[in-house]
Amino acid sequence: MTSRTVTPPQAATALADGVPGADQPAATRGRTSVADVVVVKIAGRAAREVPGVHDMGGGLSRTLGAVRDRVPGGRPNVGRGVKVEVGERQTAIDLDLVVEYGVPIADVARDVRENVIDAVERITGLEVVEVNVAVNDVRLPDDDPAPPAESRVA
Fold first, then answer.
1. Beta strands 90-100 and 127-139: pairing type?
2. Is 83 contained in some domain?
3. Is 76 left (phi over 0), alpha (psi -120 to 50) or beta?
């Protein structure tokens, strides 16, 4: 996508340095960290809430996800199509979308950015420095979902 300036990525990120001591306010004692997967899930859910977003992910990830979703007990992967970089106080997010035919793509991308930024900043406290949206496909009205897989056992 594009280059960006984000504090170095880590598996878990500190939002504020804790100051030890019983004489300090409770809110400053200790550290809060947010794992990358948390930002991925929040961003994925927020993007899917926007009207006009049909699915997320590239072709292969969508195909594999559709197969897994049909398996009994399989759950949709809310993080499919989402990549993040998380630093100490900031995050950058890349999204791969499939949009519905006929919706203005620029409007959907804008709405996705706004919803994702609002959700991630509100829930995590991290500053979202950018949300890059790549529209990889469009769902046409006559596109049928894949037929359910037939079970080989009774």
1. parallel
2. yes
3. beta
Reduced to 3 states (helix: H, G, I; strand: E, B; else coil), residue 26 is: helix
Looking at the structure of the chain, the number of domains it has is 1
- Is residue 143 over pLDDT 50? yes
CATH of the domain at 121: 3.30.70.1350
d(CA 17, CA 30) in angstroms, rounded, equals: 7
By residue count, the chain amounts to: 154
Q: What is the pLDDT of residues 52-105, one digit of tens each?
A: 999 999 755 444 444 444 445 555 688 999 999 999 899 999 999 999 999 999
* Helix (H), strand (E) at residue 149: none
**Boundaries of domain holding 38:** 32-139
Question: Picking from 8-12, 100-104, 116-120, which range would have the lowest pLDDT averaged per residue?
Answer: 8-12
Q: List residues bridging with 93 in a β-sheet.
A: 84, 131
